[in-house]
């Protein structure tokens, strides 16, 4: 496998469009680096080594002009910090220090801006890639991003083998961009194989939709399931799918339960409720 380190950082920002991708080095190791900073300076981050491409979540904080990332172990103990002094999102270069908090060892970080997802900067391109923070046991994901004036969308997903960096599969899709958190993993048809889903769109209130991909053990590839619904939740204990849909500032709520038969969602029951001002509680109503 190529001797490189892949690092991406998701920093909190009041505007999703502030996301920027860099390439560079930690010491002699090549890295990728993506930032997205909230106006209050708080955020999260992820990074992954290429010979063990399992992203690690970091905490991020901007103190004045110093940007600091903190890595913790499974016991919530801080193990490393990555610091950038005189940070500016406008700069084409970033320089910083990686520090092991146990040994005190320090390595230099040098980065060059590759592309900017800012909707209003006038740039357009057809295909750029962003590593995702979640991964499977032996595979990791990259989003393929299409950027036009005023918008950035996800146009595809690359599924890559961790040990070799070999491209296993590429799927074409069309989804809203949710930065580093477009992909989730789970067992969506309850067959014991881990699969993935891609954030598709957001709607009124908390309602969202995703595209779900299932695993075919015979081919070793993933296929689009056709599962659909609003804010789906998957319960591996009951082997049920639950859909939650609400509108009108939460005054109308629908809850639906499904089972999976031959990789298809089969309706079990649906409950509809409406808020009653007199009782100040929800009451059941007939579903349309």
Order of helices and strands: EEEEEEEEEEEEEEEEEEEEEE
Helix segment count?
0
What is the average per-residue confidence, as pLDDT, rounded to a whole number? 85
Radius of gyration: 21 Å
Hey, roughly how much beta strand do the residues contain? over 45%
Overall, the morphology is globular
As laid out across the biggest beta sheet, the strand order is 1-4-5-6-7-8-9-2-3
The beta-strand count equals 22
Alpha-carbon distance between the two ends: 56 Å
Residue windows where pLDDT falls under 50 for at least 5 positions: 1-17
Helical residues, percent: under 10%
Tell me the structural class.
mainly beta
Structure description:
It contains no helices and 22 strands. With 288 residues, it is mainly β. The chain has a 9-stranded antiparallel β-sheet with strand order 1-4-5-6-7-8-9-2-3, with no helix packed on it. Strands 18-19-20-21-22 form a 5-stranded antiparallel β-sheet, with no helix packed on it. The protein has strands spanning 5-8, 20-26, 29-35, 42-49, 52-63, 66-72, 78-84, 93-100, 106-116, 125-135, 139-148, 151-161, 167-176, 183-186, 195-202, 208-216, 221-224, 232-235, 240-247, 252-261, 264-276, 281-285. 0% of the residues lie in helices and 62% in strands. A hairpin with a 5-residue loop joins strand 6 (66-72) and strand 7. Mean pLDDT is 85; it is low at 1-17. It starts with a strand and ends with a strand.
């Amino acid at each position: 496998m190529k001797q490189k380190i892949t690092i991406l950082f998701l920093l909190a920002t009041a505007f999703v469009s502030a996301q920027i991708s860099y390439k560079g080095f930690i010491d002699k190791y090549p890295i990728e680096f993506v930032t997205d900073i909230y106006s209050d300076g708080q955020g999260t981050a992820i990074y992954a080594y290429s010979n063990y491409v399992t992203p690690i979540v970091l905490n991020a904080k901007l103190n004045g002009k110093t940007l600091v990332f903190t890595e913790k172990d499974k016991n919530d103990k801080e193990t490393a910090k990555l610091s950038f002094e005189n940070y500016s999102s406008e700069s084409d270069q970033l320089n910083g220090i990686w520090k092991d908090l146990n040994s005190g060892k320090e390595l230099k970080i040098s980065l060059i801006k590759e592309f900017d997802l800012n909707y209003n900067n006038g740039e357009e391109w057809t295909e750029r890639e962003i590593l995702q923070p979640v991964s499977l046991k032996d595979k990791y994901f990259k989003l393929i991003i299409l950027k036009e004036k005023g918008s950035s969308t996800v146009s595809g997903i690359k599924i890559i083998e961790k040990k070799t960096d070999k491209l296993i599969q590429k799927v074409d899709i069309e989804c809203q961009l949710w930065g580093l958190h477009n992909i989730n993993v789970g067992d969506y048809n309850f067959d014991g194989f881990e699969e993935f889903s891609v954030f598709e769109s957001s709607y009124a209130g908390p309602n969202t939709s995703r595209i779900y991909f299932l695993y075919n053990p015979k081919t070793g590839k993933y296929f689009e399931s056709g599962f659909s619904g609003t804010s789906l939740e998957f319960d591996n204990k009951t082997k049920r799918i639950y859909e939650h849909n609400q509108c009108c500032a939460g005054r109308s709520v629908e809850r639906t339960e499904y089972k999976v038969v031959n990789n298809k969602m089969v309706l079990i029951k649906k409950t509809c409720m409406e808020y009653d001002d007199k009782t100040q509680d929800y009451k059941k109503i007939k579903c349309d």
